[in-house]
Amino acid sequence: SAASQSKNYPVWTRDFNNWLYGTRKVDLLRSPNLKEVSKPGESVGEFRVRLQQLAREQRDMQVEQLRKKFGPRNATLQERLRRAQQAVDKQTEQAKQAKFQTAISVGSALLGAFTGRKGSSSTISRASTAMRGFSRSIDESKDVARAGDTVASIQKLLADLQVEFDNEMAALEARIDPSTEALENISIKPGKSDILVQLVALVWVPYWQDPQGSTTPAW
Q1: CA dist 199 → 10, 16, 18, 157, 190 (Å)
Q2: What φ, ψ does residue 29 adopt, rounded to 5°?
Q3: Partners of 9 in the beta sheet?
């Protein structure tokens, strides 16, 4: 008899709304690292498979960002190393030429000393030239050493940069591992404003009844 009174249906609609709000919820899983939530009805295994695909995509993107971060610094150091090595080659060649010229000057001065008159101006001049060449040869050797120190310093910077890159890559690999990540359980309840009961109605469902009294659905 209550179902025949229309005024009861708005009351039952509110009651049904309150029952949904107070009792229904959706239990889901959440990945703390990837900030991803499982879909309703998705199993743990299915969720982890999806997380692994997502992790690969994020890892590839982050690796690319990491390469962009370190790339310019590496390129700058490689260019500095190339110029420094060129400087070493140049200074080495100059030092070699200075030693060669010094040897010629010393030989000429000694030859003049042995064959010329003692104290002649030409012998003194050649001796002075030899001394200047010897001093220049020492300076060139120092330049070679300094250029070599620059190369070693840049190589150290490159090695440190590689270590920094490797450490960040290792941290990235360890941070994204869906197969071992502890998933969080979260429950989502509906908000009252999110619940919409479209219809509460009385419905007759047809059945067939045979002579023995048994019923079967008529649809």
Answers
A1: 10, 11, 15, 73, 18
A2: -115, 150
A3: none
pLDDT, residue 80, reads: 83
Cβ count within 10 A of residue 175: 14
Q: How far is CA 14 from the centre of its chain?
A: 54
Q: Taking the CA of residue 5 as centre, how many other CA atoms within 13 Å lie in the half-sphere pointing to its CB?
A: 6
- Between helix 121-175 and helix 44-115 the angle, nearest 10°, is 170
Three-state helix/strand/coil letters over 30-90: EECCCCEECCCCCCHHHHHHHHHHHHHHHHHHHHHHHHHHHHHHHHHHHHHHHHHHHHHHH
Residue at 132: amino acid letter: R
Where is pLDDT greater, at 90 or 36? 36
Q: Which amino acid is at 54?
A: L
Give residue for tokens 């969720």. Answer: 47
Q: How far apart are CA 172 and CA 181, in angstroms?
A: 14
Question: What is the Cβ-side half-sphere exposure of residue 51, based on CA atoms within 13 angstroms?
Answer: 26
Is the pTM for the entire model greater than 0.90?
Answer: no
Mean pLDDT of the chain: 79
